[in-house]
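Chapter summary example.
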Amino acid sequence: MDLAKARESARALFASLLPPQAQSSFRFVWLNNFEAERFWAPRNAIQLPKFSQPADMAIVNRLEEMGLFLAQYPDVLILREPSDKAFLAYLSDLGFDLPIMLTVDQADKVTPISEAILADEAVMGMLSELAMEEGACYLLPFAKTKMEEKISDQTGLKSLGPSAAICERVNSKIYSRKISNELGLRTIPGAECESIASLEGCFERFAAHLSERRSVVLKEAMGVSGKGLYVADTNAKLRQIIGLIKRKAKPEDEVAFVMEVWVDKLKDINYQIFISPSGETRLLALKEIVTRDGVHLGHRFPADLTAAQMACYEEAAQAVGARLFEDGFKGLAGIDSIIDREGAVYPVLEINARLNMSSYQLGLEWLIDPRSCVLAKHYPLLLKRPLSFSDLKSSLGPDLFIPPRNNAGALIQNFAAVNVNFNPGDAAPFKGRLYSLIVGRNFEEVVQIDQRISLKLGAWQAAESGRSN
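The structure predicted for these 469 residues follows.
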């Protein structure tokens, strides 16, 4: 098990984007600004009704701690709060060369981290000092928007990869549909809607599908994580949502949606591609997406694919990579796709011009036996008091992944989201999530470990609830 090699291989992907003269002496400043789509979407873009709970937003913001799996010393990782010391010790015991951690003064738990950094004079000063040190220092965000470009401009940190404008263009579902059709890839029947008139025209076109008892989905061009979409199974419902958009629209507002027939799918597949500075495209990983009610819950890998399906993904990766390179995009991109009930692959549902959840597993191929099966998932928690990592470790016992002693079990991928919503003095239970990779020799063992962990976490929560009462 050569963890150093694995860590370096993940980091080397990003290092390969550097100019040759910078590759001998550099460091990255990792900034994990999850849900950056809110800054890519134009301020005057019409949006579908959606509800975001502050507790859920706080949890998503603290997924930034997953950067510990990619950053390594002498890199810098920016966090909202210090990580649990026992969790850091766990990662060190696994062999991770932890980065320098820099915490930002946040006004609240839901403010985007880039906004918090720009408002923190002390942190901005530290970043400026890093930029002046010997050796190249590059800002490496989860996603690049105008906010991260502003941080680079004001601190002197060098910028890595394509511009925010290119990322914004590539990340649009409208762009994904257009290039899928242009490249001759199998594309879900649908249309791009960039005006009220085109929305109304699409309604007429899709009414026939609804009369055949097929649902139609309307998606915001910059929707993310199951938000910003509406599924209609009747003409009345589709007419209602289009009517709502018309009533909300002002002359200066931007209309950016895609409308598609809802395909009866067998699997959701996510894959990542990496486009080098010379335009070479590498297909990195294919993983089956686990969802519930349209919400992303995790990944299962390796994905169970036929040889023909695998060939389809390899062909699509090369075609999409060449097109992205032509449009000025280099670096890592994630692509969502589906396989329908007949086994046909629709290889480009949407392109994410950023890292995604599976990106944080790039440095784990040498830590996890390549013959293993893995499920990436999160466990929802409702807690009365903070859960320490030491207590979690004791509760999980032999189901905690600690190779070589235990090559099966839960590899904890994020602990910060467990206690993020705890407020001292508040007696009400608070929401948390535990993100983990469940590793087993086969999927049957993965399921068994998952069930045991669910029971252990449930028992711990029940015991703590009884104790507090």
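To summarize the output: Residues 3-166 form one domain.
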